[in-house]
Task: structure prediction
Amino acid sequence: MDPFVFAPEEDKQPDNSPKKTPWRVAIVDDEESVHQVTKFALSDMLFEDKAVEFFDAYSGKEAKQLLESNPDIAVVLLDVVMEDEHSGLEVARYIREDLHNQRIRIVLRTGQPGQAPERDVVQNYDINDYKEKTELTSRKLFTMMHGCLRAYRDIVALDDSRQGLERVIQASKNIYESRFIDEFASGVLQQLTSVLHADKDAFFGKPEALTAQDQGGNCKVVAGTGKFESLVGEDAMQHLNPQFSKLIESTITTSGQRIGDNYMAVSRGRDGQKNLLYLSGLSKTGQLEHHLLELFCDNVLVAFDNLYLKNQLIETQKELVYRLGEAVETRSRETGNHVKRVAAISRLLAKAVGLNEARAEVIYFASPLHDLGKIGIPDAILNKPGGLSDSEWEIMQGHAKIGYDLLGDSKRDILRIGALISLQHHEKWDGSGYPEGLSGEQISIEARITAVADVYDALSSDRVYKKAWPVEKVNQFMHEQAGSHFDPEVVRQLFEHIDEITAIRQKYLDKFH
Result:
């Protein structure tokens, strides 16, 4: 059964598709009469309901310029002898070897067969026919042209199929590299336009599309192009063709339907989650484009479901890590908003110093674990309002190693980096920190970033046992400690982005009860 179901005729929009582009034929001959006779003989010719459009060149040089600027010419009727006795042969070789055009059908015509013997020419040049001008009657010219256009059509179809397959493979490679649902969805839409050749010069025009997910009974837009680009997060059902509603409600397997110039594919995931891909503004398409659209959408929706399930596991892991960090801060009478601020500031600084998005994301979720080891510190020491004795300070310093020991043997990136941050975030750039006295770049960049974010926020925040330092004093301290306590480059980026950091701190204000 054809998966492309069209609306009844009365429901369709008027056919505003462009008129069929005529077949383009080049006449290359130094005699004007040959041009005129050829055009007259083929003036009323139609092949597959498309007329013939003629282009004229009167020398080998003109022919090369014409063919270079018009690569979609289907047939060239090429005189052998023009400005010199081998001009036509040079043009034939130029087409295949310089322009690398294997689609165009080349018919050599000669009035002097002795100048270029047929046997030699056919063997040595990649041409498709060789005719003496005297044998090309109107009827034979008509028959020959039909054969050439039929061959050109079939070659173009085969080449388009090959390119279509290459586009699907490349598109799949690009989008499957995505790690996040919204990134994946945006990649799908971008690559779908590539698969369909849907650029501003293509027959289709640029389709407007959206991808959406059924989330708790509401179909939310995840990513969009065109008129859907600004609708991310909104209810997709408000923007779809109403005739698709039943498809969304009833679909239990991947399917695709087209109504008018709209197309939608829907799949139901293994956990009952529905995903849809919707396109509008599509003109009439050929069978190849239908097949590519169906193939691409069906496979993308399966991949979308797999990525969703994978991300659910990752997000669960991240949330558990985040809540663990909050629990530690609560035990030491600090609000959970401190770890939220440290996480957000650390991610900002990570990108500012040149780390990629993925690594910055790991730091975002790992940095809340920097004080995990405090769960092993007695309350009497952890929440002591005054200064610590030497023995108490020694116990307090042990929290760095305790945190590392809890997480250090994990193979998960977030926990592994969390262990490293826990161990090293009290190390100092000049080597005077603890527990190992590391210095400079011996300290991991993740720990150096977290240390700056942690100290800056701690000094700037109220606690139940202290007041926040004035902003000027905090800034002076951070500047003074750059190059001794802190990585100077991280501190420099802190002040380069101080407005963004201030906004983060305003977003996650402390609330004491």
